[in-house]
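Let's sit down with a protein and look at its sequence and fold side by side. Once you have written the record down, we can walk along the chain together.
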Amino acid sequence: MQHSYLYLGLTTEFIFRFSKVLSVVAACTSLVPAGLGIRRWPQLTPALRYVAWFALVPGAVLSIGAEIGRWVFHYNLAILAAVTLGEVLLLAGAYARTLHSDRLRRGLGAATGLFVVVWCVELGLSLRRNEPVNNYTHILQTIISIGLAFSYFEQLLRELPNIRLERDPMFLVSVGACLYYTGSITIFVLEPYMQARAAAFQIWTMYIIQSALYILLNGFLALALYYHGRTDGQQQQVR
């Protein structure tokens, strides 16, 4: 794969620099849904307020802080761990106020508790070794996030609400979460293997893909916060 990129004139140095720039751009795109959340806060439902917090805290504040830590202090391990924790807790809070099944909400509580325990253990190992140890954390994060999204899809299919799905806020959040976490888990799982092989070109290429997926996630979050409350009248007319 590396040779095919070289034929296109893309060297490892170029991919490295492009990945760094795109990572900063991706982090800054979280300012869009965060700004919409702040602007429309009084009109947001409790579930979408969690989505706004998701965009603001682990998104805008911590993700941009992680980039500052990377470039200025050359250390962002603890901040990235906080991003993961914040994403799971706030996404779980949003779906806990969206899903109607008591059984699903109890299962969500148990899964979130397990995630926090694993997160604490791997954070301790990361700080002790001064290198990221988070494979199980990211696997659980992906399972929880995608599981919540599919639970919402199932709820929509079961209840068949009279709405336009492309403008339903939590449907947009669910689609964005599925795309981002499905793509990211492959990167997190393969990263240690690539590092062991010193495959720098492939590693930075995967980071580019992850940044693109994060931009896509922020786009879906922004649409969810933008459409909320704007289409209630229109959704009544959908047949």
Summary: The chain has ten helices and no strands.
